[in-house]
Amino acid sequence: MTERVPVLRIGQVLLVSIQTDLDDQAVMLLQDDLAAAVVDAGAHGVVIDITAVEIVDSFVGRMLATIASISRLLDAQTVVVGMRPAVAITLVELGLSLGGVRTALTLDKGLRVLEQARATTGFEGARPDTAAGQ
Predict the structure, then answer these.
(1) What is the pLDDT of residues 100-118, one digit of tens each?
(2) Burial label, 8 (beta-carbon count in 10 A; 0-12, 13-18, 19+)
């Protein structure tokens, strides 16, 4: 049985920390779980921490781009943090530019990227209880 990658909520941001190499089934489960979590939490951001990932293949690279696209369609920005130099080199060699995926070296920097994006767009993640005048 494939183990699920936990999706943690920190305010309006979801954190996914990938601690092991993922097989194809785990990647598909992560995409489904994360999409549902973005909607359920009304999240404005997703941080995917790949610090522990040592090896990527084209499938995992495409998965990162696909997750970012899904999140964007659900009104959440995605930042990938903790990419090792070898992983970056491999992605480039595979021809995967990860268009639309923001990156940051650390979790702290990734959270700041999301906060800056939120401030720039003026998106405040309004919910019914935060309507104007309340």
Answers:
(1) 789 999 999 999 999 998 8
(2) exposed
**How far apart, in whole angstroms, are the C-alpha atoms of residue 49 and residue 45?**
13
Instruction: State the DSSP H helix or E strand holding residue 66, giving kind and residue range, or none if neither.
Output: helix 58-73
> Which one, of 68, 42, 64, lies nearest residue 123 by Cα?
42
**Inter-CA distances, 12 with 37, 43, 56, 90, 134, Å:** 11, 5, 28, 32, 20
Residues 2-32: tens digit of each pLDDT: 688 999 999 999 999 998 878 888 888 999 9
Helix (H) or strand (E) holding 45: strand 45-49
Q: Which two tokens stand for residue 92?
A: 């480039």
Asked if 70 contacts 34 with a C-beta cutoff of 8 angstroms, the reply is yes
Cβ neighbours of residue 54 under 8 Å, at least 6 residues apart? 21, 84, 86, 87
Taking residue 124's Cβ as centre, other Cβ atoms within 10 Å add up to: 11
